[in-house]
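Appendix B. Extra example for self-study. Work through it before the problem class; the solution is given directly after the inputs so you can check yourself.
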Amino acid sequence: MHKLKFLLAGTVAALAFAGGTAHAERGTDGDLKILFWQAVSTMNPFLSAGTKEILASSIVIEPLARYDEKGELVAWLATEIPTLENGGVAKDMLSMTWKLKPDVKWSDGTAFTAEDVIFTWKYCTAPDGGCAQAAQYEGVKNVEAVDPHTVKITFEEPKPYPYSAFVGAQSPIIQAAQFKDCLGAKAPGCTSANFMPVGTGAFVVKDFKPNDVITFAANPNYRDAAKPAFASITLKGGGDAASAARAVLETGEYDYAWNAQVEPEVLQTMMAAGKGRLEISFGTQVERIVLNWTNADPSLGAKRSTTEAGPHPALKDPAVRRALSLAIDRDIIVEAGYGQSGKPTCNIVPAPETVASTKNDSWCLKQDLDAANKLLDDAGWAKGGDGIRAKDGVKLSFLYSTSTNSVRQATQELVKAMWAELGVDAELRNASASVFFGGDPASPDTFQKFYADVIMYTNNFDGTDPEKYLAEWLCDKMPGPANGWQGQNIPRYCNTEFDKLVGTLSKTADLEKRAEIAKQLNDMLTEEGAHIPLVHRGDQSSFAVTLDGIKMNSWDSQVWNIADWYRKK
Amino acid sequence: MFTYTLRRLFFAIPTLLIISFVIFALLDLAPNDPTGDLPLTIPPEVREQIRASLGLDQPFLIRYMKWLQQFFINEPLNILESLTGWQFGDGERMRVLSWATRSPVVDLIVQRLPQTLWVVGLAYLFGILIAIPIGVISAYKQYSIFDQIGTFVSMVGYSVPTFFTGVLLIVIFSSYLQWFPSVYDTNLRVTDFDSFVAQVRQMALPVFVLALYNASQIARFVRASMLDNLHQDYVRTARAKGVKEKTVLLVHVLRNSLIPVVTVIALGVPTVFSGAIITEQVFRVNGLGQLLIVAVQGADMPLVQTLTFIFAVLIVLFNLIADVLYGILDPRIRYD
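Solution. Structure tokens for the complete assembly:
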């Protein structure tokens, strides 16, 4: 009897173990229900570069290599990552060669070859196509097939960091046969191809209702016969972030809700139901306050916020810029608006770890009102009768603008209160995100125009290499009337030494040296006060407790390893 | 009456053309941009190319003329082709394309129409069916308990916004009691009894929210109109002749009272098509209302333009229908 019990217990344990990890058969775990509070408009990430489109399409189409959850490159449709060491990248850094996995098939059963890779490049660089991912192919001179499973990319000039084209969720490979008549201006006309692309991924699109719901089925030709564990996916869109999180965490109607951008306390009450959990990962997003280095006085008219207007009367003083940063308690901002999904930061390049500097953490991470007050006192900014500091008739009173979003407005209030303790006044304003980020040169409310003294928003960079991102602060990238207000140097920061160092970075191939230079550039920006970094923002999504195999990833698509997801039994 | 209708229809053409121009101009002046929602990692040069590929680099008037041609010539020809199987020309016509989905706007609208008509239309119908008896009884027994409760409920239904009632119902019936789903499944096809029950369950909450709102409005109308008529001389005459109270109320008073109500109901029909933006969003019904709001947020101008213009056509049309109905129902009104 005892023996029998022991045996039974053993079997149960073995079964439980098997149930927990085994997903040895394709399509055994039923339907995976996903909720996106912003509905997906198209499955072609080249025609719409929204995050939601990139995520949804990454379930179906895949790149040659992508970033794993630690931000490291892994070969995906290629056999290995080409490097200088393995000879995949030429010594002169003018070309690189990708070897494709030989046994990969498209979901329609045809072979995946070098022609598809070449076609993808042609598709995205075709004139009049308006390809949203064209920047990924910047500097690419030619893409050619050495043999059916080898692709050679030639660059116009030496590329020390060549991992951009065909790497990451932004740059997947599409099927040449399906899109061959959709080049350039004809691209939007290929509705069925754009909605139901043939892919190499774990799932295929069965039905696509634009801006509503997508139905996927397991790809019968997927390269791993045991995957995916789910037979189908239903991806519903619409609504708002809070109710999407509720559908997973509280009612359990869905398995996965993307982007739970909800106040931490609200999420806590939903979690009490015990039906779901939050997964957080950190990429390179930093919420920052950008300081205007030029004069934004409305009386200057068209010259406002350009170099012609001259330096900002108050913010040109380094003491003011530093004091504004010292006065901010980043911990409170994180606690109130971000919870687990935010960390205080003083860097504009907060990750990956190898590139993240810690140089300024000592003075900048903790609020120090005494030091801030002393700085302003010493610099001659004295409090007037109204409690606001002024010097030579210039008052420390700033117009503080951002995009409309409840967390941002709460942060504005907090910062205003912190600055008030310094004797600095702030007038708060916000504009709808589609206007603020819309870049319409005719609108005075865009962040490029910067018709304010300080503005707040989040920015980040794709992948793990910050070169292109750091080049945004070059002197000649300032937005202004001459370039139709298109430019990424929003603070109008200009430092020839910074420019020189960016030049060095673009010629350095050694990864360690690159990291060193990136850190220096990052530190320059923070020390000089081009901006005040506030919060290193993470991505936060809600998952049902029954769902396993997830590796939250901020470097690539959140669903990058959806083939490995399974349901706990 | 017939010539009047024809004349009104004829005058509707320039009105609608002006409306379409005003909508187009307003959208063009709005500071939204279709690339505004894209990640900031997309550089400005690429954004410029995207705008050009959407045709935004062309002058305003040319874009407007193109839309007119696409909407008034190409789209009707396409519909005709798909209905009859005839072919006009080579069949290669530029259709009105949505900027977000890059697919024909008309297809999107056709795809969205069923759920909007089911949910919003049914709610409107239920609203009317509930409102009329409540309005009649409330007026007949003015200041009774029933009237007081009815007034209270309709005031609440009218003044509490649907984004509040909707979320409240979700919290009670979806989160707490778990009776109804909180997310509408547009993929559900009614094929057997089970799927029918599922359809009823998922429609219950949004229909209830909207029906309450519609009923509140119409019930107040019915009540006011009934009260007007109850004090008329012809009611006293009918009662003096010994006509049964039921007949007085339901035949004489109700029929006369419904004349203004019918026009109000007719004027409200276009709102069924424009969907209930907020309610659709709350329950993720993803009908025409949600399509419109997503398009507005994403600065998808061809979609916003086409949808609002279709709503404008419906409003002009139902205004005419209301006027004509009024003329038919009320013999005192004559247009010719």
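Self-check: Chain A touches chain B through 66 residues (CB under 8 Å). If your reasoning did not lead you there, revisit section 3.
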